[in-house]
Amino acid sequence: MVLARLLEASPEMPLGARKELLVGAWRQVFGPMDYHGGERGFDPALRANEIYQVVLEGGVLYNVTPLVDARSGAIARIALLRGEYAPEPGADDVLRVRFTSFRGLRGGLPEGRTFADLPALAERGDLGDVPSITPAWVVRAFFRGGVLHEVYTDHDMRVLYGASARDAEDRYLYVMRRVPALL
Q1: What are 10-24's pLDDT values in tens digits?
Q2: What's the pLDDT score for residue 156?
């Protein structure tokens, strides 16, 4: 309700006018930490302060999340959920996302790299063989993707709602901060 009032007082530019602001790496500072079972709790396998979305030019984005080993607390693998996005026809502030692959880089970060660097490396094929967490055909058939309702974007912050293709009414609020990529 507060967000709606703020936007009414100071409307955001249409998505097309701020599209270049979306491109880059974003770290989640507020949002759901668990997508299993709809509980919206905390998944202990995730590092809450290291959940990223990297938006690339050309209609590709990645959700990048380190998954930790429950015993050691060390990064067991880094999940790379790849999606393709396009503006939703007839909506000024909505991106439609279709997920295409879900792979996992084993171990920690490659030396001298950040989480924000991984999507560009993956797109260029510079990460080597990154095994699938879930086969691509399963991702395309069952993950389906969803929509990102881009509420506010500037050079440092992004506020959006995300919803799955299965249940567009069940929305998650995200607040994200831009992070630098080394590439």
Answers
A1: 667 777 778 889 999
A2: 93
Per-residue model confidence (pLDDT) at position 6 = 60
Residue reference for tokens 């396998």: 45
Phi/psi at 89 (nearest 5 deg)?
-55, 130
pLDDT digits (tens, 9 = 90+) for 50-71: 889 999 999 999 999 988 888 8
Tell me the CA distances in angstroms from 161 to 97, 115, 124, one per residue in order: 13, 22, 29
State whether the Cα torsion 126-179-78-102 is positive or negative. negative
* 3-class DSSP state of 28: strand
Q: In angstroms, rounded to a whole number, what is the distance separating the alpha carbons of residues 99 and 80?
A: 11
Angle at 89 between CA 83 and CA 93, to 5 degrees: 75
**Residue 111 burial by Cβ neighbours in a 10 Å radius (0-12, 13-18, 19+):** exposed
Q: Is the dihedral of CA 37, 40, 45, 46 positive or negative?
A: positive
Whether residue 39 is predicted with pLDDT greater than 60 in this model: the reply is: no
Alpha carbon distance 148, 162 (integer Å): 5
Q: Helix or strand or coil: residue 70?
A: coil
What's the one-letter identity of residue 42?
Answer: F
pTM of the model: 0.85
Sign of the alpha-carbon torsion through 107, 111, 114, 119: negative
